[in-house]
Amino acid sequence: MKQDQGMDLSRLNGITRLARAGALEQALILFRAQGLDARLDDPEVLTVHGRLLKDRAARVRGEAREALLSEAIAAYERASHMARATYPLINAATLALLAGRRERSRQLAVETLELIDGGDCAPETPYWLDATRAEALLLLERREEADAILAQAIRGQAEAWEDHASTLRQFAMISNEMGWDAAWLDHYRPPPSLHFEGIMGIAGDDAKARGAIAASLQDIGPANVVGALAAGADILVAEEALRLGGHLHAVLPCPAELFIESSVVPYGAAWEARFQRLMEEAASVLILDDWQPLSQASVSIARQAAMGLAIREARRLQSSAIAIRVEAVGEDGQCEGEADWSRHGREVRHVAVERSNISRATLPATARATALLTLPLELAVALPGESMRLAEHDGYVVYGNVSLTDTARLAQVLASRHPDARLGLDYRAVSGAQVAGRFERCLALASSDVGGALALSEPAALALSLQIPSANVEPMGSIRSAVGDLPVYGLFPDPVSGDELGEQPG
Q1: What is the tens place of the pLDDT at every residue in 321-354?
Q2: Which residues pair with 251 in a beta bridge?
Q3: What digits encode the pLDDT tens for the residues 152-195?
Q4: Which of 91, 146, 267, 319 holds its CA 20 to 30 A away from the CA of 20?
Q5: Residue 497, Cβ neighbours under 10 Å: how many?
Q6: Residue closest to 337 by CA, chosen among 238, 473, 196
Q7: What phi and psi, each to the nearest 5 degrees, are found at residue 338?
């Protein structure tokens, strides 16, 4: 029995991690595949089920939403009564408010406070007990008291950003339902996520440039910083961010050894050791292409992917996304991807420094950033726009287009018309010399099953998060392929309208 309980807990923890990462569809598929949706005798299972139903309800409207909310409330209430647990009870209270059952919501909020004050509830951390008390007070429209308790909870666990994000998301829903301006929550939000990029022409010992960068970062105080690690501004920003306690997420367009050859060593051998230290200290390292050398096109894709990752991190933490650009005095200009960033209301901060390193390295411009759409041969048609047929292999055909968004929209139209077809979308640098090959990744994507969604590579998913932040993109795990383990994302129709990708900002 204990072994079975341990197996259940392990499975539940894995499903919960998927849901927290935004992979709701995959979490639901696993939960149902393991028969857990039929388990009514385990409060842990019921609590996870309630959470999945709650998240699904947030993505639909009308009768479907009402039904999901009712199921979630029932699961949460049953779990709380079985285990005397505050977490499922307060969730039932909040969902009752969202379902229009305000009096029931107030009753459950009072029960939550009584359970906490009784002292015999299931164990919880001090943060969650305070956050739960604050949420119950908010549901009872005692907002000033809720504000004070929330402040106390966050002070007591100042860097628990993911926990704060979950609380803020819940409080924002309550505020919106109550008709209050949710701006009162803004000063509790975690620090922003930062995308960084800058010139390479900075000497390693340039104290003035370092000081200007440090001053800007001190003002921003980012939780996460995302970018490449080229010699010069990139490395200076990353070093300073780590010194301030931020988490570094390195995004490289090519393998590290090739990146070092093109973007680190040419600016002075001392930069290499600093690059290696940062790679070791990074919270994550994402290498977008495992074989081809650096080019202007691959740098562009990596930039867009890094910006998309910063946006996704900000969304996960319920914070904001900011970009910083370190430019040479008199040489300012907008880089590719910055227009998409600014178009959706995101801030760009500029830091101007004098060039103190005259070394330069030139990257080839022969390749183009290309969206690669793979579809079954029987669906091969004359595609609109600039799509060009590039390859055919094992019953699939690969089309290339310079516009990722146009290709994604077209793919979703095809997927809606042919729901059983498997389609894949990749985004990578392609040159004329490579037209005959190197399509293993996009072919592998098209063979993967992502529950009726369009399968995306990681570069495509992250770049799309920049170009169309409203796109419903979810991580779907990894598949084994000829190019190794391949992370796969799913692009789903809009969860509310069911439409394909639109133009609206996120």
Answers
A1: 999 999 999 876 666 678 889 988 899 999 999 9
A2: 286
A3: 999 999 889 889 999 999 999 999 999 999 999 999 999 999 99
A4: 146
A5: 10
A6: 196
A7: -70, -30
Average pLDDT, the chain: 89
| Residue found under tokens 């949710």 | 182
Q: Return the HEC string of 326-370.
A: EEECCCCCCCCCHHHHHHCCCEEEEEEECCCCCCCCCCCCCCEEE
Summarised one tens digit per residue, pLDDT across range 67-80 is 999 999 999 999 99
Distance, in Å, from the CA atom of 134 to the CA atom of 138, rounded to the nearest integer, reads 6
- Helix (H) / strand (E) element for 321: namely strand 321-328
Token pair recorded at residue 421: 């077809």
Q: What is the pLDDT of residue 505?
A: 31
For 167, the 3-state DSSP assignment is: helix
Collect all residues with Cβ–Cβ distance below 8 Å to 442 and sequence separation of at least 6: 372, 373, 374, 398, 424, 425, 426, 457
- What single DSSP character describes residue 486? E
- pLDDT at position 447 is 82
Q: For residue 255, which phi and psi values (nearest 5 degrees)?
A: -55, 150
